[in-house]
């Protein structure tokens, strides 16, 4: 392969990796929007909290020693999902549920407030400086080619991100399409009022979507934290915006849309950074958001909202 | 006389200065078909909205099986056995017919997450029961052959029947139907007519009906309430109502 195509290949691998994590976070936006029609702007912070919890657990367990790395990561993942879910649940209960039925703008402001609160809360509790973790997973699975200037590889870390994302997305899809709760989630997304009238406590279903979204964000928090190795209390803001973009890109309210949107956004960013000054990647990402909103507001897989008579 | 199922006393609903429902009394007994009729805008649907928990009535009491319904959330009311349909079809149109039936039975299924994850025997049994009930009601309304189609693709008349079947799968004691015959052709109306009678006679539930199709109302009702401008005008058997001068005046105007 030529140098140019190897370079392209490497960027696509990198883009799919970042894109997978965007997709994981985007699920939380899209599920909540699908059911109660609000953008949960504090969702990025849940991702950040997931990152912090997993860092704390990993550091703690490694300091105690005598644990195998896969076990450490697994425990960290479970604890991060659990704690992030608790945060997700509580945020909905405290900041959104009392405002249900009021103007959408009010819930949005409450969400932004919650986001600022959580950022500062973590900054106070954990310090606002960067926290770093030495790379735990190094080495590459595959050497796809090498030239004098660089090697094209798929690293273990990237493979881990791909596999975990794939497993999570598959489980989620099965859960939504097959399980009883998933069925109720879909019913709520279509007609919340009617679902209520059929005797389903829709508040529980709404809580459930917040919990699922938060757990998925925590998975992304652990993965991206390990991938970059550095976190701070403010990473949730940008990650949240990117994931939101991904959700809109794929069609907000649509779960496959969020998955697709995440991957497309990740690859677009990686390619921009590869061929243009890398500072432009955010410009392109959000430019994409504006373009989508102008020309196809329903997103790639979204269906136009049918006006209810 | 059979037992009193729904007992509405002096139900009043005010929206600001507008008196939408004014001291309406309503009684539905077990195994009875009761209709509410009245000109457009008379407040019939508002009464339904008060009964099903959509609105909180300004005044009056609603007793269902002796329990006060006022203050209960809509999902709690439907759990007590009072379910309703709407004037327009409100199916989960992107879900299949059978899924629509199963969602309605959500609360009858085991709510334990672990039971669902590991498919415990009790979970399986409840799932099976829900499925059996869904199939039973789809057969009753002659929709079983469409079980795996998306509900939104059914013909309009079939969607209306599916709504009734979905309500029935929640095992209600009282079914509130808001203009079930609207938009149906004469043949479908006839079928609906038969279905409602079967609900009373074979399935032993009560039906409270809002309907404009007088043929349907007069043919099947045990008791009829007439409301005009939110105020009760008359009530009685179909024959009594038909001959009531106030009712004739409200419908046909002064002569």
Automatic annotation (TrEMBL), chain A:
This protein's record includes keyword Transmembrane: yes
Keywords: Amino-acid transport, Cell inner membrane, Cell membrane, Membrane, Transmembrane, Transmembrane helix, Transport
Its membrane topology: Multi-pass membrane protein
Family: Belongs to the binding-protein-dependent transport system permease family. LivHM subfamily.
Molecular function, one GO term: L-leucine transmembrane transporter activity
Protein name: High-affinity branched-chain amino acid transport system permease protein LivH
Pfam family of the protein (one): BPD_transp_2
InterPro entries: ABC_transp_permease (IPR001851), BCAA_transport_permease (IPR052157)
One GO process term, biological-process aspect: L-isoleucine import across plasma membrane
Species this chain originates from: Marinobacterium lacunae
Cellular component terms (Gene Ontology): plasma membrane
Automatic annotation (TrEMBL), chain B:
InterPro entries noted in UniProt: AAA+_ATPase, ABC_AA/LPS_Transport, ABC_transporter-like_ATP-bd, ABC_transporter-like_CS, BCA_ABC_TP_C, P-loop_NTPase
A single GO cellular-component term on record: plasma membrane
Xref: SUPFAM superfamilies: P-loop containing nucleoside triphosphate hydrolases (SSF52540)
One MF term in the entry's GO annotations: L-isoleucine transmembrane transporter activity
UniProt domain ABC transporter: residue ranges: 6-254
Top-level taxonomic group: Bacteria
Pfam families: ABC_tran, BCA_ABC_TP_C
GO biological process: D-alanine transmembrane transport; L-alanine transport; L-isoleucine import across plasma membrane; L-valine import across plasma membrane
Key words, A-Z: Amino-acid transport, ATP-binding, Nucleotide-binding, Transport
PANTHER family given in the database record: CONSERVED COMPONENT OF ABC TRANSPORTER FOR NATURAL AMINO ACIDS-RELATED, HIGH-AFFINITY BRANCHED-CHAIN AMINO ACID TRANSPORT ATP-BINDING PROTEIN LIVG
Family that this chain belongs to: Belongs to the ABC transporter superfamily.
Name this polypeptide is given: Branched-chain amino acid transport ATP-binding protein LivG
Biological source species: Marinobacterium lacunae
């Amino acid at each position: 392969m030529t140098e140019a195509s190897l370079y392209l290949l490497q960027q696509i691998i990198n883009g799919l990796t970042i894109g997978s994590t965007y997709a994981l976070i985007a699920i939380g936006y899209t599920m909540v929007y699908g059911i109660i029609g609000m953008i949960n702007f504090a969702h990025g912070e849940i991702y950040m909290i997931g990152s912090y919890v997993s860092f704390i657990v990993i550091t703690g367990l490694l300091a105690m020693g005598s644990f195998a790395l896969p076990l450490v990561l697994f425990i960290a993942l479970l604890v991060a999902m659990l704690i992030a879910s608790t945060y997700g649940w509580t945020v909905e209960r405290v900041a959104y549920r009392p405002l249900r039925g009021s103007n959408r703008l009010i819930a949005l402001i409450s969400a932004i407030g919650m986001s600022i609160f959580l950022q500062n809360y973590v900054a106070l509790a954990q310090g606002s400086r960067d926290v770093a973790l030495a790379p735990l997973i190094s080495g590459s699975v595959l050497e796809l080619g090498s030239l004098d200037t660089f090697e094209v590889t798929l690293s273990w870390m990237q493979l881990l991100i791909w596999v975990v994302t794939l497993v999570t997305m598959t489980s989620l899809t099965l859960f939504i399409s097959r399980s009883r709760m998933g069925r109720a989630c879909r019913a709520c997304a279509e007609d919340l009022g009617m679902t209520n009238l059929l005797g389903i406590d829709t508040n529980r279903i709404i809580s459930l979507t917040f919990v699922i979204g938060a757990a998925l964000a925590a998975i992304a928090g652990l993965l991206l934290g390990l991938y970059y190795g550095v976190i701070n209390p403010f990473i949730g803001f940008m990650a949240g915006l990117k994931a939101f973009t991904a959700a809109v890109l794929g069609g907000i309210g649509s779960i496959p849309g969020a998955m697709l949107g995440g991957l497309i956004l990740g690859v677009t960013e990686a390619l921009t950074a590869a061929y243009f000054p890398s500072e432009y990647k955010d410009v392109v990402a959000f430019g994409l958001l504006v373009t989508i909103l102008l020309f196809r507001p329903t997103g790639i897989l979204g269906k136009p909202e049918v006006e209810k008579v | 006389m059979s037992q009193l199922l729904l007992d509405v006393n002096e139900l009043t609903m005010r929206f600001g200065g507008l008196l939408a429902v004014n001291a309406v009394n309503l009684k539905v007994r077990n195994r009875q078909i009761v209709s509410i009729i009245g000109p457009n805008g008379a407040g019939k649907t508002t009464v339904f909205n008060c009964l099903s928990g959509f609105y909180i009535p300004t005044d009056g009491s609603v007793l269902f099986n002796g329990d006060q319904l006022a203050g209960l959330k809509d999902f709690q009311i439907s759990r007590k056995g009072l379910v309703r349909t709407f004037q327009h079809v409100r199916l989960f149109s992107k879900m299949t017919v059978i899924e629509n039936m199963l969602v309605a039975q959500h609360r009858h299924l085991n709510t334990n997450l672990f039971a669902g994850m590991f498919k415990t025997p009790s979970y399986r049994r409840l799932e099976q029961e829900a499925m059996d009930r869904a199939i039973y009601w789809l057969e009753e309304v002659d929709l079983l052959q469409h079980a795996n189609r998306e509900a939104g693709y059914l013909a309009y008349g079939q969607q209306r029947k599916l709504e009734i079947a979905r309500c029935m799968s929640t095992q209600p004691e009282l079914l509130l139907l808001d203009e079930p015959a609207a938009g149906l052709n004469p043949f479908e109306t006839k079928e609906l007519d038969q279905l409602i009678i079967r609900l009373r006679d074979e399935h032993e539930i009560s039906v409270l009906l809002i309907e404009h199709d007088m043929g349907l109302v007069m043919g099947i009702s045990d008791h009829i309430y007439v409301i005009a401008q939110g105020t009760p005008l008359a009530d009685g058997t179909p024959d009594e109502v038909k001959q009531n001068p106030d009712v004739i005046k409200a419908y046909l105007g002064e002569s």
